[in-house]
Amino acid sequence: MEKLRIKLEKWVNGGYCLAHHDGHAVFVEGGIPGETVDITLSKQGKKEWFGIVATVIEPSPLRIPSDCPVYLECGGCSYRHISYEEELKLKTSLLEFMFPNAKGKIEVSFGPSEGYRNNVQWQVEGNQIGFFAKNSHNIIPSSSNHCKNVDKRLLLDETNEIWKQNQIRRSKWNQKQTPHPIQTRIHKKNQNHSLIQKKEKPISLRLSQDKVVFYDLEETNFHFLNTKLKVPSKGFFQINQFLLDTWIQTIKRLLPIEANVLELFCGCGTIGIALRDQIKTLHGIESHDKSIQYAKQNAKTNGVNSFVYEVMDLYLKPLPKYLNKYSTWIVNPPRAGLSKGLIESVAHLQPKTILYSSCNPNTLRRDTTSMEELGYQIDSLHLFDFFPRTNHYEALVRLQK
């Protein structure tokens, strides 16, 4: 791959530093603004190039030695070459750039920068376990036993009891597969024969109270803020075990007293049930039937009998008119953000307060811009660093009309 010497200009979203060369914008991983570096180009488009730092020629005073032997090769982290303090400043400045009216007003919440993940999915090939290398299906050797982001109880190698349990599961799973698996690798041996190797099932682990479970097969139990929740197998739950309470408490602080709440993308009911003492009525909507079943069960377990939960595809069409009685919305969508239909629903149903939590600041900015055009104003913006050492974070805004 082609190499290039370049001077880095500024931080941009995605964990990149921006530079320019020969009329091209160059997005570089592993650098710091002001540095002169040699990079290896990984992708060259007509307008944009992408590269990874190979050698630092003129280092920044902010550079520190990485504490991970596979940093950049893995691609899971973006900022292990700067201090965590600098990372928080960086993430705050990037969010301020997207929301300039909030400059100097963003509340930042963070916890320990290591061991924060309560779940992980390890890839498997033969006796190799770990993360895929960036932009490939090649497993990084031993990454499963030294990743600093993952709780130590979820780390894994061939001697681990969970690995042994998984070998039994994997054997049973492989026996059930059809002769034509979803992903195959074909190695031609001659014109008449080929060897087809099946993709092996990942090892999906999650902390469930005091034990580790295979979350693709088993439900998970969480206890927090005087709330007991069960999450279905494969069900979504926030991954940062240290910031969940802070996030929920902040939403509570922003929520009107005796609120009538429409909770969109409610999952198994996490937010509304945790804030049940401050909510008068709640209607939760989620597209996954199993999650709604668990939301109903979780509500009863926590002494709530008045909340209503409904299965509905929130990307398919606008919300029905009968939901106009809910003056407060809590929305926590996936990275895709809100659909045009949901923005139309905001215009038609006219909620007074919208609390929007997002793991994608780009779609958050897009959606809040649309709502500002409808007369809403952002009066609160919070950054929760759910994903330390990576380029990701959670942002929470309150919009009011």
TrEMBL record:
The lineage of its organism: Bacteria, Pseudomonadati, Spirochaetota, Spirochaetia, Leptospirales. Pfam families: tRNA_U5-meth_tr. The active site is at 359, 359 (nucleophile). S-adenosyl-L-methionine binds at residues 238, 265, 286, 332. Gene3D superfamilies: 2.40.50.1070, Nucleic acid-binding proteins (2.40.50.140), Vaccinia Virus protein VP39 (3.40.50.150). This is Class I SAM-dependent RNA methyltransferase. InterPro entries: MeTrfase_TrmA_AS, NA-bd_OB-fold, SAM-dependent_MTases_sf, U5_MeTrfase_fam. It comes from the Bacteria. CDD domains: AdoMet_MTases (cd02440). PROSITE patterns: SAM_MT_RNA_M5U (PS51687), TRMA_1 (PS01230). Keywords: Methyltransferase, S-adenosyl-L-methionine, Transferase. It comes from Leptospira yanagawae. GO terms for biological process: methylation. GO terms for molecular function: methyltransferase activity. SUPFAM superfamilies: Nucleic acid-binding proteins (SSF50249), S-adenosyl-L-methionine-dependent methyltransferases (SSF53335). Belongs to the class I-like SAM-binding methyltransferase superfamily. RNA M5U methyltransferase family.
